[in-house]
Amino acid sequence: MAKYIFVTGGVTSSLGKGIIAASLAKLLQARGLRATIQKFDPYINVDPGTLNPYEHGECFVTEDGAETDLDLGHYERFLNIYTSQANNVTTGRIYQTVINKEREGAFLGKTVQVIPHITDEIKRRMLLLGKEDKYDVVLTEIGGTVGDIESLPFVEAVRQLQWELPEEDCLVIHLTLIPYLKAAKELKTKPTQHSVKLLSENGVHPDILVCRTEEPLNNELKRKIAQFCNVKPDAVIEAADASTIYEVPLMMMREKLDLICLKKLNITNYQEPELSKWKGFLDKLKYPKSKVTIGLIGKYIELQDAYKSILESFIHAGAMNECKVQVVNVHSEFITEENVSEKLGSLDGLLVAPGFGHRGIEGKIIAVQYARENGLPFFGICLGMQMAVIEYARNVLDLKDAHSTEMDPKAPYPVINMMEEQKKIRMMGGTMRLGAYPCEIKEGSLAHRIYGDLSITERHRHRFEFNNDFLEQFEQAGFVASGINPETGLVEIVELPHHPFFIGVQYHPELKSTVERPAPLFVHFIAAAKQYNDMRYSVKNPLLQSEMI
């Protein structure tokens, strides 16, 4: 039977429950255990698919097409395994399931209540992954903060499971904050005491406290926290601020978080942790040999979590190239023909990010034109690819009013059009083209060189596509569709063969990038940016150029 670890949070949000859960799972995995993580979110949306990125960060899409919380991206990046619909559950999904059962008459006329019906459904889903005989340990992150009204049913479900499951099969970790008051020059434990007290009042007693802190916790402070919060001193774990999230597993290993969990869960069959690849990645990340500057053209740049997977993919690809990737955010709304050279002239590469809606579209098109005409390495993802298509149609094919029907339903040249199966859909949630789809790659193309394969699968999240009515016209003008979906004929990849590096993809390669398997497109994009940087540097330094010759 699988063991269950629940991770709750207190004092404040954004302490990093997902990173702590992913780090612990990574350590357990490194010790030879089969571990997975699931996220329970307290909001009433059925999934994050209809949420504005400003509200909740990016929407992460799994292999099976589930629109999920961005923490699932961390889970996959750390564990190097796929998650699924079962790994992310919201209050909305719980209530939807219970209400559907009530409508079917499944409760035989009983009054449907939060307890036991809602909590029973929460518990069922909490235990679901553990019943598959695929995992030794299932970690469950409870979203929100203890004390939030919307989190109460989840906390109650954990309380019931603490009582129902054998003591050695269930463990609760509470992540909390130990603030440092600069004026007093001391760490304060009172917020943690109150947070644990509130959790205990709800019937849940934490086994381990992980304390986020800016300053080190001495043994005296740990003993004080342990005494007042009713845990053992060795169960008070310091979680200091890290320079990168990828250091956290090693920090937790130094604090012996994994060993404490193994002991409490009575797991004896484990090995010494194998983290050589992880440490090698960190060495390359911390000690790069070169540096490139990449422009990220988007419309949600005020919130970094809106492009979380893209930014993490740059970290993975940078380490692979032993190169520091400095990302410069450029808001597409403020790019014009007059200032584009000033805004993009110092870049070594340009990535036009995905998004929805018409805001900032013209700025993205101007940016693509600059990259195409100046030999700047270009990479477009989803909407970014569509902007490359529109730009080429307008400025090379001379289709001046070419556009996407998403922005202009009456465009005379709809080079980007809504997919046929999407035209009759009125419900927005979960109705896009979602999840992994196959793609056949043209032999000898840039995409072929990047992937080293003629057949791949990548994850999608879109409603609009390249309009194949214009495909022949584009290809006659040198714009190559190098990747095609074999079943639908959908154009997946476009590229310009005579450009140093110009590629756009309809799918989202950033969703499959992990520490151990960086996304090939990102790896080659950063390599092209390095080459562009070297070329520019040699032009600025004639002496170096002559030495190179």
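Second entry:
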Amino acid sequence: MEADIVFVNGEVITVDQKNTVVEAVAVKDNRIVFVGLNQEVKSFIGEKTNVIDLQGKTLLPGFIDSHIHLMFYGVDQLAVNCKAEHIDSIEALLKDLKKKSLETPKGEWIRACGFNETAVKEKRYPTIAELDAISVEHPIIISRTCNHISVVNSKALELAQINENTPNPAGGVIEKDLEGRLTGKLMEAANMAMTEVASYTEDELRKGMKIASDHFVAAGITSVHEAGGQGPDSYRLLQQAVKSRDIRVRVYAMICQINNSQEFVNKMVEAGVVTGTGDERFKIGPAKMFTDGSSTGPTIATREPYSSDPNNYGILYYSEEEIYRVLGEAHKKGYQITVHAQGDKAIEMYLNCVEKALEESPRKNHRHRIEHAGISSPDLQERMKKLEIIPIPNPPFPYEFGEIYVNHYGDRVHHMYAARDFIDCGIIAAGGSDAPVTDFNSLLGIHVAVNRKSQSGMEIGSSQSISVMEAIKLYTWNGAYASFEEEIKGSIEIGKLADLVILNDSILNTIPDQIKDLKVETTMIDGEIIYNKRELVGI
């Protein structure tokens, strides 16, 4: 057989069951046809074969981000970016918002994303008065980095029909000051409802999706598990974008919408669009509900009060009975199910639901998941193992938010976004960035999983550190397993899809605390090189 492309002289990390490292790989059409030694691959080289000398660089399976918001990341690129280096204060943010208002037709939304009150000089949120001073003719929304909290102006509140007499929604807070006046701050379900009011146009969504796909491909991400959008239109637009190749990454789309996840899951389950429907490019994933809030908000539901506030146990969206009523039925009908669960209280509630569902409707190989699995205490890990749950922790979170976790949760950081514990317990966990909440760079995720340090160098639950090989598996084979696709991707083995990534150096010979400095040079999806930072060396 004459291969289309042959890679030689590489550090080929196969992520097979033995973690084999070889030198050469051959690709024909969209499949891997050889994995082994330089000498052996020569029989696959013909006159038309493109032979690429890796010069000792690492070749990996394409990265799989098992929890990411492709659509939200994309449209965030159209908004004011609060994480921009120059926005170090509310004053700087307001200046950018004012500039945006002068460029935006009256009545259209002005949006800012990625705000973190701990990262600005004032250590607070903007006030409704400050936003109204920018414009009362444009609705304005500033989304916190977690996307669970926002601050809006009076025009936005008017469009959402929120006034001082509006009650808090279940699982949410419309903040008011001591005199009962609206502050513009919306938390959890109240924020989610506002995001629906502030929804993007289809043109904006299409533009954002293409931007997101291009950014992900350049980072070596070849598959994503899309963690939820804004209703049925999200699925239609995702599928159309995959078909038109505006989205090049493979998509495993969770059945979830940000606002009122319970109602949306019910409708989708009733419609019969079941997990696994689709093909290798686009496939329907698990039915997903929200149970609690943000780990940095902080609004996660905990069994013990926050270390920062003895009266705060977080926010729950639904009761255990409500979760079971929806997801228990989805399980019964053959769906993979999952929840957003950050706090140990929320995780415990969900595990109770899964346990009951499996007792009433036993099912092997269900691969039910937990998105984030933030505070996974040892007793919860044992239950995950018994129930064969797949947790989806977020390895990069401690890098950006580590100090916040120490402040709010104290010693509980030693079991936050666990990795070492899961591996030692025999639990298969897959890594996700949750972008745009934090950086989608899988190499950063691998770096933090290995080093468990914040950006400032503080150790954050260092007992959860894992090896480089183990961290790579979180972002490759384990991600494929979490979507029932380990037979076709996630490792470099004969017969699997040719989704591959070349780094600019050897990851196994890189000093652990410098892994984040590695770069992706080349990304191949379906046997086609679709990103190449440098000219490949042919021989």
